[in-house]
Amino acid sequence: MDEFVPLAILAGVVLAGVAVTVGVSRLVRVGPVAGDLLPYLGGLPPVEHAVSRFHVRWYAVTMVFLAFDMEMIFMYPWTLVVATMGTGAVVEMFLFLAILLAGVVYAWREGALRWT
What we know:
This protein is mostly helical. The protein has a single domain (2-110), classed as Methane Monooxygenase Hydroxylase, Chain G, domain 1. Helices cover 66% and strands 0% of the residues. It has 3 helices and no strands. The chain has helices spanning 5-28, 57-85, 87-110. Helix 2 runs antiparallel to helix 3.
């Protein structure tokens, strides 16, 4: 349990820092102005509800983004161990990229990458 003492101290320091920051911000803040309660939209008054629905095509774009995001999450640690793991790691990464490429080709074929 002695190895967790520095982690507990760090967590305590972080929590104290957050508490101090929130406390100071509440002490020095100015009361809300009527315009501050509206959501920010480039200085213009909002024209639609804040939780309005998005067009269904954005969900496909989101899935393509997540595919590329997952690719990067797995490729960064892979770059650290590829030299020690050898050709097996390279083959596995190319198989992983081939699966992601199949997803991108499917999204392309379904029209998820068309903007019009």
